[in-house]
């Protein structure tokens, strides 16, 4: 198995102010030595480490983690995709094979952020260097995301956390309609991650997620879904084993080949691990 989405950080309340009191379970540091035994216990052989802060210093730190710890098979970092020296910065990562792609925290931006031509052009340049792009949005930003995706048919794109539908309040129709339209773009994958944190932290049940997974299976199929834990953020609502069990149980009816795609092969293929 590959866990295609997790984070590390050295906690302080200023730089991690987004971790509010409702997320007290993760108001502390999480480092490679904390995750490695959990992955081993759950039969996960490798992982993808994803950016948290929007600065290139974190890229350097995460690449050092990946070089030191064999289980980290790749890094999704951050780069200023609207910078005039973007090409120069991308060239600088060409001798760092563990850097697989980039992400911007669009969920923290205005809802129309992905309409910006200069940002779209920056993401387009990633294709020239064989880098992926992770789309991190809330459900309300799906309209902009669809426009964005339509401009980038050559890029390898993946939507993190199934686009964060409001599972707690059973929001479905608008999300499903946009996801169906997005699925027509064969270069777009979906990261089946972060779902427990969109539900009621304390009172979710696994069946809450099944209707969303039903739609993803119908629209994208097992060849474009990729498992990720979103550890340690998931810990505000579920232990690592609990979030994994939701997905293992749901996908247990598929063939072994299809399960292997979702939990391993698709991540290797998408991120070139």
Largest beta sheet: strand ordering: 1-2-3-4-5-6-7-8
Number of domains: 1
- Annotated CATH architecture: Alpha-Beta Barrel
Q: What fraction strand?
A: 5-15%
Radius of gyration (CA) equals 17 Å
Runs in which pLDDT lies below 50 for 5 or more consecutive residues are: none
**CATH homologous group name:** Metal-dependent hydrolases
CATH fold group? TIM Barrel
Strands, count? 8
Distance between the termini: 12 Å
Binned, the helix content reads 25-40%
Mean pLDDT: 98
Biggest sheet statistics: 8 strands, parallel
Class from secondary-structure proportions: alpha/beta
Question: What general form does the structure show?
Answer: globular
Q: Helical region count?
A: 9
Descriptive report:
With 273 residues, this protein is an alpha/beta fold. It has nine helices and eight strands. It has helices spanning 32-41, 56-68, 86-92, 117-128, 142-150, 173-182, 207-220, 240-251, 256-271, and strands at 2-6, 46-50, 72-77, 99-104, 132-135, 157-159, 188-192, 225-227. The radius of gyration is 17 Å and the shape is globular. The chain starts with a strand and ends with a helix. 40% of the residues are buried. The mean pLDDT is 98.
């Amino acid at each position: 198995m590959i866990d295609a989405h997790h984070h590390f950080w050295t906690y302080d309340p200023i730089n991690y102010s987004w971790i509010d009191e409702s997320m007290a379970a993760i108001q502390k540091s999480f480092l490679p030595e904390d995750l490695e035994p959990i992955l081993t216990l759950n039969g996960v052989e490798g992982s993808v480490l994803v950016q948290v802060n929007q600065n290139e210093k974190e890229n350097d730190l995460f690449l050092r983690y990946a070089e030191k710890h064999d289980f980290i098979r790749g890094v999704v970092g951050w780069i200023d995709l609207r910078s005039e020296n973007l090409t120069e910065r991308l060239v600088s990562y060409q001798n760092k094979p563990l850097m697989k792609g980039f992400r911007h925290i669009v969920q923290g931006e205005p809802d129309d952020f992905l309409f910006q031509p200069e940002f779209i052009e920056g993401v387009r340049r990633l294709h020239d260097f064989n880098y992926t792009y992770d789309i991190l949005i809330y459900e309300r930003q799906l309209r902009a995301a669809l426009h964005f995706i339509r401009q980038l048919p050559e890029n390898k794109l993946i939507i993190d956390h199934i686009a964060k539908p409001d599972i707690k309040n059973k929001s479905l129709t608008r999300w499903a309609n946009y996801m169906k339209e997005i699925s027509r773009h064969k270069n777009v994958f979906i990261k089946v991650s972060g779902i427990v944190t969109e539900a009621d932290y304390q009172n979710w049940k696994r069946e809450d997620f099944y209707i969303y997974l039903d739609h993803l299976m119908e629209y994208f199929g097992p060849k474009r879904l990729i498992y990720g834990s979103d550890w340690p953020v998931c810990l505000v609502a579920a232990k690592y084993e609990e979030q994994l069990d939701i997905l293992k149980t749901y996908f247990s009816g598929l063939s072994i080949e299809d399960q292997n795609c979702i939990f391993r092969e698709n991540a290797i293929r998408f991120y070139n691990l």
